[in-house]
Amino acid sequence: MSLMKPSRWMAAASIVLFVIDAGGGSGITLQSLCEGQNLSDTKPYGTNPTITYITVAGQAACVVTPARDQPSEMNGQAALIVTYLTPITINGVSYNYFVVYADEDHLMDPIAATLTFMP
User: CA-to-CA distance for 87 and 20, rounded, in angstroms?
Assistant: First the structure.
């Protein structure tokens, strides 16, 4: 996998600018994983986030963007979930989806716009 981050983001030990994760094992659909991003009692994306289904790097994907009432400690975080070309295995567990969390202003461009999966 490869992606670009905004050039003005500077590395700092105390600041997390984006987080990469893997999600969705066997039997988990893209829709259920996307909708499940906001199921906790804390509602990290607010009471009514927007889920948009798109194509990224030629793969089915979704973007979860926060509602206006997103908790302030989430700092505008949004989520991008993209179907892997083929499931990956990490520590013996299979995952079907690449997940990146970043601020809404940079999630689509440059992150989603430059995401590619290596064969």
Answer: 16
Looking up tokens 């064969």 gives: 119
Closest by CA position to 60, among listed 101, 19, 90, 32:
32
Residues 10/16, Cβ–Cβ less than 8 Å:
no
Give domain status of residue 3, yes or no. Answer: no
How many domains is the chain built from? Answer: 1
Write the burial class of residue 33 (CB in 10 Å: 0-12 exposed, 13-18 middle, 19+ buried). Answer: buried
Q: What is the pLDDT of residues 31-74, one digit of tens each?
A: 999 999 998 888 999 999 999 999 999 999 999 999 999 999 99
Is 78 among the domain residues? Answer: yes
Across 8-21, average pLDDT: 64
